[in-house]
Amino acid sequence: MGARNPAQATESLVETNMKNFAQNDFARNFALASLFLSLIVPNPALAAPPVSRSLALVGGTVITATGEPPLTDATVLIENGRIKSVGSRASLAIPSGSEVVDVRGKFITPGLIDTNVHLVLMTVPEFFVKYEGHFEEIAIESAQIGLKYGFTTMMDTWGPLEPLLKARDRLNRGEVIGSRVLIGGNIVGIGGPFSPYMLEGAPLHGLDFRYGGWVQPALQKRINDLWEANMGPRLLALTPSELADAMRQYLAKGVDFVKVAVSAHGIQPVEPLMFSVKQLRAMREEVKKAGRPFLTHTFTLESLRLAVEIDSDLLQHPNVMDPEPETPGQIAARDALITQIKAKNIYCALMLIPSKEQFKILQNWKAEEHPDDPYINQIMLNRRAGATPEIYQKRVAALRPWLDAKVPFTLATDAGIEVSELGPVVWGRLGRYEFERMEALQDAGASTIEILMAATRRGAEAYGLGHDLGTVEAGKIADLLVLDADPLQDIHNFRKINMVLKDGHVIDRKSLPTVHAVDFYDPEAPWPF
Q: How far is 2 from 11, CA to CA, in rounded Å?
């Protein structure tokens, strides 16, 4: 990158990314179209400012995430933001003038990747009232918090498209530092935050998810329009050809991927199906022509069947179903779908991973021990009834078929921001929830190497970025973590970050965030505080 001008560097990255994406079965038929489009609209996800420096990480244990055993007493040579070579310390000569960092006794992994976050979202209406007009800055602050805690790449799967794209582009131009972010905008087909798909359907007196119908209608409409970006519920009435036209227009706005609602969100008692198979195929066709990943949102067994039938690239929360499969026929249908998913090698962003530690805290919670935290007390006491040992075991049992089948799962959290002045919500706090999710997977029986692969290599592959990200190999972008302890021994060790590198630069973690649009709750505070 450093030897070429930025436009050439960006174009080359896009070309290699699209070639890699085309190698997968789901994109082969559209590789040429993807390449043509990439020459017109460079992929912003990999556009990083060129650097010209050499760095050597010397003496550490490298966990490559390729499936190969860890390489001890190794050297990682970095040049112009990419990994030049990886090998034993004895076998690699360090170029003259390189900056040398001694990492003996430490562990080098790829930078972490979260395949489902929300950089600009809270589950209370006051957030949208107070911070309308500040979403771009909030997104950047969120990206900085993610990077501080080792997440060098994050995919925002539902949010306000225009400010998110502006934030992404500022990050990619190097105007501000932060995680590499990919933006999908709206979940195609659903309404915005104040629609029945979200806060309009929330409980009137909800503690952590609150009704928003009281907000002034004009403000509700502005926020909904910003989120929907002309890809909301009106699409349900379009013909397949009209949907294809709408999707082409949406792709032209510069989204990095598309996520389509196969089932609804927030509609009770059971989420209805949204689109017909013909409608889904029409949208999928346009997305694949553009060389972008096609994601699906499902909450029922039948919606998952449709998502598998149309060969989605990444299934978001496919294991989350309400109601859960209970009858022998439903369980058999679920297991058959899992078998198909494995056979088709469809990536799965698994969620609803029960946390053994959080279940224990809920069960032992005593309000009198927290007299200064009345709102957290309300939330915790309200949730305690659903946190019995029996429910924990039931959730683990529902997760095990996916893990046992070895579906290619990614780390996905739904993590978002928690603004301190709006009070606690105790959902998934960005910068903390990712570690909690990995630890919960370990407690549920997933191996540490499977979790590491989910949080690195598979996240990159699921979004067509495997040629450039996700492993520690020559030629890859130098997004790396240096840890003080071995994550393969205990996944909790991912919290022991010594150093974060993005694009070959060592990040000053203590300085982050540099953008202070809102005051976040501390990601390092113990859950639920």
A: 14
